[in-house]
Design a protein that fits this description.
427 residues, alpha/beta, D-Maltodextrin-Binding Protein, domain 2, binds alpha-D-glucopyranose
Length: 427
Amino acid sequence: MTKISNGMRTSVGVIAGLALTLMAGISNAAEISVASGITGNGVENFKKIVAPWEKETGHTVKLVPMPASTTDQFGQYRLWLAAANADIDLYSTDVIWAPQLADQFIDLAEPAAELMKSHFPSIVESQTVNGKLVALPLYTDAPALYYRKDLLEKHGAEVPTTWEELTTTAKIVQDKERAAGNGDMWGFVWQGNAYEGLTCNGLEWIKSFGGGQIVEPDGSISINNEKAIAALELAASWPGAISPEGVLAYQEEEARGVWQTGNAVFMRNWPYAYRLGNGEDSPVKGLFGVTTLPTGGGHDTSAATLGGWNIAVSKYSTQQEAAVSLALYLAGPEAQKKRALLASQLPTIVSLYDDAEIAAEQPIIPQWKDVFLQAVPRPSAPTKSSYNEVSSLFWSAFHDTLSGNGSAAENLELLEAELTDLRGDSW
Ligand code: GLC
């Protein structure tokens, strides 16, 4: 054994003491991990949004980027949560997931009681499951019809208010642009991939034709009807005609890619595409407008699917105090305002709709207040823990129809049977 001199003993003791002090310091300064889907400038914006909280608390925030597809994200979350993963403290969650993931997150009702008074009650309600506040709203979402003002004007066309008009106008402008040498031009881009985004698009077509909400708020299955069939038949005429064949694999970012390079007359997308489309380097900057999605089949009310994202604290987090503090900050007015200005995402705090800076820089936000307030929720509340399965039956039936794999009538009849089977006696 090596003999340790008295002098060495002292310095070992000092160093050990120093290390303990340092460790205490480190344990006060936590690193909080946030899992979040990323689109557009998401990473850069995220850093800007969390910076004031980091500065104030001395903690750091680590972004764990997730796939842009909400469906893929949900699959990953389920695996992590089932494995009681303690590495992720906060999860950003889609508006539809609260009932399915409620047991995995802590109740935020008490710490957020004061803050939630400033949010739209319906949105707070959507994140409340049996009295438990599962997640705090970050932003809400309702899609728009984006249209190229310059192209419509050039070809003497109006902004369409029905899906039938959109189909005709898209074709005329697309063909004229192609004839004028723009061979890459398409009439309409949207989200046709087999995932949650197609459920949103499909719900909009059907509801705006007066064909119901697939599964109604009372849990009844309404999908197999003439209006829904007509809506789906019209949509099935688009791929290859006014939309690229590839639209059947498009999610939000693929649609935005075509649109933002200037190669589409119309796009269905969420408000995040507004700020990006008006970015300094965007070829369509200043050339487009937004309006509500069309109606169809003689029906007079358009439909936008209600979307939105929230922040939840994992019950497996070992740093819950700091995690709750970050969740409150992210759902609070400072972060929501930054998100509105940087990414044109719709706040859930009522007073931000009267904010002059937001209105001047991102006019879509005050313009969209009534749209999201009237937006159609997907049936995640009535179908409870079955929603993911229910939605995957919807998008499969829609995708099959759009791909020419069975007619709209056949696929919706089958969908009705599958949903009835899945429901059994009750959802
Ligand atoms: C948007 C919406 C979200 C929806 C998703 C579908 O991110 O906010 O609610 O599920 O799009 O792709």
